[in-house]
Amino acid sequence: MVLYGNVCLDDAMEVHNEVRYSFDEATTFGHFSSVGWYVMRGLFFGMIVCVMGAVGCGKSGSTAIVPQQQEQSQDLLHAWEAATGTRNWQEAWELSPAILSQYPDDPEIAAAIARVAHELGKADVAAELLVQACRAESFQDSARVEQMFAAMLSVGQLYECMDVLEESLASQPNHHSIRRKLFELHWGTEDRPRARPHARFLVQSRQFDIELLIALVESSTRTKVEKPLMDLVARYPEDLRPLTARAKTELDRGRLGEARATLEKVLLNHPQHVPANVLLGKLQIAESNFDEFAVATARMDRNLDDYPEYWIALGDWCQSENLTEEAAKAYWEATRRDADSTDAWLKLRGVWNLIAHPETMDDVTAKAVASRSTQLNRLNQLVSEFKITGKESVSLAIDISQTLVDLGRIWEAEAWTAIATTFASGDRPGLTQTRQTIVAKLRRKTPWQLTEGHPELTVSLSTFPAPDLATRNRIATGGGRDSAQPSNDGEQATNRYVLTDESQQRGLRFFGRTGDDLDRPGIMLYQFNGCGGGTIDFDLDGWSDVYLSAAGGQPPLVDSAENSLFRNESGSFRNVTSFSGGDDKRFGQGVAIGDINEDGFPDILVMNYGPDVLLVNNGDGTFKDVSDRLGPGNSKTAWSTSGAIADLNDDGISDLVILHYTVGLDAVLYKCPSPGLDIARACTPLRFPALQDQFMQGTSVGFFEDKTSDWNAVPSIAGRGLGVTVGCFDDVAGVDVFITNDMTSNHFWTRSLQPEFKLLESGLMNGLASGDRSLAQGSMGIATGDLDRDGEVDFYVTNFAYECNTLHQRSETGLWRDQTYSAKLELPTLSLVGFGTAAIDLDNDGMLEIVLTNGHVDSFPEGDDAVPYAQPMQIFQRDKGGRYFDRTAETESEYVARKHVGRALWTIDANRDGLTDFMVTHQTEPVALMINHARDSNRWIDLRLSGTTCARDAIGAVVEVQSGDQRWTCHQTSGDGFLASDERAIRVGLGRSSEACQVTVHWPGGHVESFPSLGVDQQWLLVQGESEGFELSLPD
């Protein structure tokens, strides 16, 4: 036993497994069984004896009954007893009003007559009588309260029942089973502000189980099954409020149209139902329907003020109106109502960058706000992993409790360690020590949330102006709302894009795959990713060559098909693998292309499940395997996926970023059984620990040193990395690294402001950790480019099915915002599994299209939520209103018209005609070379950069191109998304403009140079330090 204050905690505490009440059970009448009825009758007649004067039975101060009344009452009761004894319920019912009038405040009589009402099918009257009985005795009888609960639900009085249960707990706070039921009802009906106090009371009263603890730390995504609520609506259609739960599920899945229809149906009948109004407001903001939000919210009463989601939506509305201080106050109000809202803290920190109030939020407080956001994100990810791995991991429970301590949530931290003592296995000494440390900090009067040491919880923005929905402060461009500047008008196009798979006729015949039976169910996790490739002009003849990875064996053995190098000979490809020395046979994944030794010739880094391979270009058409230069960290069991070659620390020598997925070989050896199926299926990635990514520094002698720890590139939660892009993406000098992770938050590494080179992970703070609907998604590919032509880089991230892909658009705050819904990009990708993607100006009209390839990870059985294995490629075109339209069906292409199991996608100009082509790998068919035959005769310019004082590849350079009155901003990047490496070129579509281009290059390191009067429809080499560009010859 561990004692602190006056509270006694048992180290081996008993977990109270609450028996949940299902809505289906509400059709029975609780305790009115035959045995229960005779007990009730005994109590009833005992009360009669008491009323007739038995000594010691009466309540103090009760009114005596005169003899005549006693005789009348006795006769009445005898008649009532006779009627019920013979089950003559109708006669008993007719006598009941007289009895109730005689004893209006007696709970036993009210309950007994409720039995009669129930037998006569008067369920609503029975429920009313039980409420009366419970109130008469101040809800002291918990069994009767349970009866009342069942009776009210049986007649569809869900919300009335919750109100009465609140009333009962005000009188009898220690009725824990009732409180747990009420918590479940509030939580299940999406009224979480009313649910949380009950959960906290239960934890502090030692009445918790693992499900309650998980609910308290989960993100806002709905996890409760809404079927019982839907059944209740089916039985009692006059009350549609439970449908709010369905709307929340639809919103979480990105089905905005369905969620809106459901909420409108609810609010038509119940216009003041607060949870539905709050959810509708969140949906309106997601759709960028700011005016609708303002009008609808202004009609609501102030009950909305208790809901943090309302304040977050209001803050977003204020930002759309350029009301920065009002937005800050709204987000602050949200944190006051829920100190555990990651979204509220993130948005408060983001908008604070635009306000100069150092006296209100100093550096210490600002860092505390950022830290709380990070810790909350870590907590959510730990809990997600805990749930998926079986809810019995002691090590994860310890990590969760430690994070809760860091957040100042000591009660929950202690509860997690207490419940971990009941798990079957684990590190008992570590658990005991952790638990003792936490218990030592806890006292009976310890508040639920500590504020000491948490300046973020004591900051006050009360002096800031309050948001006013009547305010209109729009400017002509849309009041700060993101607006596009495309040169097209978004009208329907017919056969605008013409794409042809010419891999076979151009000699590029290659089929890289991770197994031989990928067209059958039962594909394992290590086979999911497929194989990648990259564009490389290895012989510097101006024609883009291709390097492709292969797999098919068993990691980490060297038993796969060989990787291949294809030389581009004037538009046709020849396999030169055997001559070049690029025929590695490990389990290939991604490919990164870059100049690692600054000799001007591009080199190849191949990521494998097993040791990675580094191939140095000898300059004579051959490559040398120098994988030993990767050092001892090049593990035989490491699962590498994607990578990038770029100078991270600005020393003029290229470094390496190598993404990792999971630890060891368990993902190869371990299979998860599928209930009801004869075949094993892949396990969820969260079943296997994530493996830390590597950041390798290039040295002057050509070797690489692991600087992951020295550069502070160790995140609070290791990711399962799949996609990467490197370039200068923010306003801080130096290159940044954006990494997409599978089922863990994405990472954004930027250079810290310390004198010594360090990296800072700020994905959460910059809005890139995930989309708005989730803290972690199945993120894979990345398309990088200035999609809205505002001079800032945007990202398009592909995700798993029912998550929808995410458009991260950089806003005026300097942060990235999820603009998926306002851009109308959610529905087309919702049911698909996205992999490789790229931002390509297919028709050179000056606006980037989004091109992506899709395909499921396995061929699953048919069902309501079944997603096809083979899926269509997609092409999205942006209009000048910022919306995207799916142009896939209008594209003239046999390949695009068919479905595929696509994986990696990267760019190439295979025939050097100034139109960007691309390549796609697949699981069930050979690689595709998609040649672009766009019919529009738009102009273009192609720029190749070569650094001299910076690294040769000039990764991180920012290029501004101006032609006439049009301006474009482009970024020199590396990594290029999922398992692939794009053609290292900046190609800009100029539309109809034929004016010479004025080009300004912001080189890495800060050097800026201008190159005037570069001709259009030409390829140019721009060398750092040269005053003029060099025109490169093109084929006739």
Automatic annotation (TrEMBL):
Region annotated Disordered, chain positions: 471-499
First and last residue of the signal peptide: none
Gene3D superfamilies (UniProt xref): Integrin alpha, N-terminal, Tetratricopeptide repeat domain
Source organism of this protein record: Rubripirellula tenax
Protein name: ASPIC and UnbV
Keywords: Signal
Domain ASPIC/UnbV: 954-1020
Compositionally skewed regions (Polar residues) per UniProt: 484-499
